[in-house]
Design a protein that fits this description.
about 260 residues; Rossmann fold; 2 domains; two-stranded antiparallel sheet; 7 helices; about 30% strand
Length: about 260
């Protein structure tokens, strides 16, 4: 039976205002190589590849109607796209290679206004005992005078501050959408030992019920090299030296 596949790729972008955003350095190149490799080698076994990425990310070069491109911007857009696909299509496996941002903007505020609110709270308090850490943290959590981030914030604000919030962990939601889907996740660290990378990636796999984790070390990526170890429930399945080798290894594991 032909396979239906999801590949998520590239970064997510979180808006600060109408023109500024938080993003990361991911390009989506690995996701595009994986998609192209699957299409080159296993086209006859593929029904559809749902390729989810941001507008500027790398896309597969193979031109075929088997690929449905879905453009997203934010982490929530990605979650919405996955939810829709899983509700309407039985997916065999998902390659979740997108570098989902850890943080999104919660609000933007001028430092002067934040200081004024803190100062006003202090001045209006009847005793020092009323000025607790919880009271001050409450101001930081929900200040009164935030900027309107639906429009472009002035370029001349000298003390502009952005409060960040955690984004949802997308990998942790996938098995809830379909417990039977084969899930390949990714973990990137930098400058750590292979043992530490293995331990961190293994915990990620177990926590999210992933079938495989592709574990990378940023220090070993560059100059045409893209070292990774692929970890399954029984340990390290294989080690790869390039994006193409990662794609081929995943192909061998998933198209059985």
């Amino acid at each position: 039976m032909k396979k239906s596949i999801i590949i998520t790729s590239g970064p997510t972008n979180e808006q600060i205002d109408a023109v500024m955003k938080i993003t990361n350095m991911s390009t989506g190149a690995l996701g595009s190589v994986i998609a192209d490799t699957f299409l080159e080698d296993k086209s006859d076994e593929i029904d559809t590849i749902y390729y989810i990425s941001t507008k500027m990310s790398y896309k597969p070069r193979t031109m075929t109607s088997k690929v449905q491109f879905i453009t997203v911007e934010s982490t929530q857009d990605l979650i919405n796209a996955l939810t829709t696909i899983f509700k309407t299509k039985k997916i065999d496996f998902i390659i979740h290679s997108a570098a989902v941002g850890d943080y999104a903007g919660k609000y933007v505020i001028r430092a002067e206004e934040l200081v004024d609110e803190i100062w006003e709270t202090i001045q209006s308090s009847k005793s020092k005992e009323e000025i607790t850490k919880q009271v001050l943290m409450g101001i930081f959590e929900n200040p009164k005078s935030i900027c309107n981030n639906g429009t472009k914030i002035s370029s001349y604000e000298p003390h502009l501050m952005t409060m960040l919030k955690l984004t949802p962990k997308v990998i942790g939601l996938i098995k809830g959408m379909d417990p039977d889907v084969t899930l390949v996740g990714f973990k990137l660290l930098e400058g750590v030992s292979e043992e530490e990378l293995y331990q961190v990636a293994s915990r990620l796999r177990e926590k999210n019920n992933a079938d495989y984790i592709v574990a990378n070390d940023l220090a070993k990526i560059g100059g045409g090299k893209h070292w990774a170890m692929i970890i399954g429930k029984d340990g390290v399945v294989t080690q790869c030296q390039t994006k193409k080798e990662i794609a081929k290894s995943l192909e061998n594991l998933l198209f059985e």
